[in-house]
């Protein structure tokens, strides 16, 4: 029998424009999306009241990280003023930022399992570290 793993997730939605540098196609032109970011948090032990983390607390953290992009040109928001604005790199950004914030809040008990980023209903990028 394996070790227990509890996992929860929370979504954050924002509207933002971007352009993918060096794309060579229509995505190189400025355009917008209604982005959806889903952060999966995991723990092998639950807190004193039986949760990985309260959904409201996770939502607050995800919203804090994502609010910098809402109704912005993502290409003008650090670090994407220096790196490309692909869904893959945005997923990696959320993963790393959320990992840092959860470590501060939960002392390492709760970690990020993965981050999913949708540019639209049919296009999904996933970032995780193994």
Number of strands: 4
Average predicted local confidence, pLDDT:
97
The termini sit apart by: 21 Å
Strand order of the largest sheet: 1-2-3-4
What are the segments in which pLDDT stays under 50 over at least 5 consecutive residues?
A: none
What would the principal axes of the Cα set say about the shape? elongated
Order of helices and strands: EEHHEE
Helix content: 10-25%
Indicate the radius of gyration in whole angstroms. Answer: 16 Å
The percentage of residues in β strands lies in 25-35%
Characterize the main sheet. Answer: 4 strands, antiparallel
The structure class reads alpha+beta
The helix tally amounts to 2
In short:
With 130 residues, this protein is of the alpha+beta class.
Describe this structure in words.
- The protein is an alpha+beta fold and 130 residues long.
- The chain is 25% helix and 32% strand.
- The chain has a 4-stranded antiparallel sheet, covered by helices on one side.
- A hairpin with a 2-residue loop joins β3 and β4 (123-127).
- α1 packs across α2 (87-106).
- The longest helix is centred in the last third of the chain and has 20 residues, at 87-106.
- The radius of gyration is 16 Å and the shape is elongated.
